[in-house]
Amino acid sequence: MNKSVENLEEEAPLIGLKNLVYQERKKILNFSLLRKSQKSVIIDSHPKYGKFIKLDDVIVAVDHWNPHADIIYVSHAHMDHIPIFNKKIREGLDNEDIRKWFLCSKITKDIAEERTRNHFTFPESMWLLGKKLDKRNEVEIKGVRLKLTENGHTYGSNSLLLEGSEKILYTSDFITETRTFSNDTILKGLEVVECNRLITECTFGNPRFKFPSFSKIQTDVNNYISSELSKGNPVILLGYAFGKSQYLLNMLDLEKLDTKVLLDRNIAKLTKILESNEIKFNGWEPYSNYNKTQLKKDGNYVLIIPNYSMFREPYKTLISHGAKVASFSGKVFIESFRDKFPSDKYIAYSDHCDYNDLLCFIDRINPKEIYLEHGEIYNFFYSLHKYHEDITIKL
Ligand SMILES: [Zn+2]
Ligand SMILES: [Zn+2]
Questions:
Q1: How high is the ipTM of this complex?
Q2: 114 contacts: CB under 8 Å, gap ≥ 6
Q3: In this structure, which ligand is nearest to the CA of 202?
């Protein structure tokens, strides 16, 4: 027999970290009970259908397919955030009776479709919000207002604000800093909005993560490349294929560097999709315009590739022939990361908030309840307790 959701939730009071985590695992979720629940807000995670937010009569699935939800919200097109639809779900989506609404930006949809070979494709008629963010970024469904808001984490990424009987902000991965790139393009960080419940990521929620300002990082990147090129060493930059690689491309001060920029095949493909979405990039060429033999003799190029590709041909030959490798991550403080991607230069650069950014953001919002997800959850849980005794923090 199923217990009611309320009873199960009462069994998991916030009385201590160990206890809370233990109780969370025991929780069983039944969506028909959940719909009938008197609680106006339920924020939880289902073992199969992932995270969801129930506010009043609306259930929003977060970065997951959930047949019981009204709305599927997809924050951005990093692989761990894209819902993958199997054939049965894809066929079912054409059936009007099980209509879902989708919330995501056009860039997220385009990139996710490409990266999943169309295993994230839904009918245009179900696309409720995000097609044109500038024109219609807010919508009301069953009395709950939903708003997508830019958060600077990657191209097309959005946080979600829900307004009904309460105001809830779901940040997903985000930054707060607004970044201006060498080629004058701008990426806007998440702005402070008033809400009483905040669901935030805390990937780098540990005091050891302190990142330099974006302008300092940009200067460091250009100085490093310029000094290596002047010695006749080409430079290979390692970055995640979607987002970070294109940021690196736009950080380059090409007038000063006077060099050519080559992109790995996968990065080039995603960059073209972004260009078709009117994002401007510095001049680049696909790696395929060249070959290994040519480049082995060439001391003047910058090549951007995904991290793991450094161990594969043709890049590993270029590295063994003197190309310098620079890697960019918030994790460069962690020895195991450095061991994993042996590089000549490590630059602390992330598309997530660092510890202070997170504390500062939460301080300015001052919600009554905070839910933590991703990364340094346990460390950040204690940090927050130190500064905000009056806020309830959930894991
Ligand atoms: Zn992400
Ligand atoms: Zn993520």
A1: 0.99
A2: 269, 270, 273
A3: 2
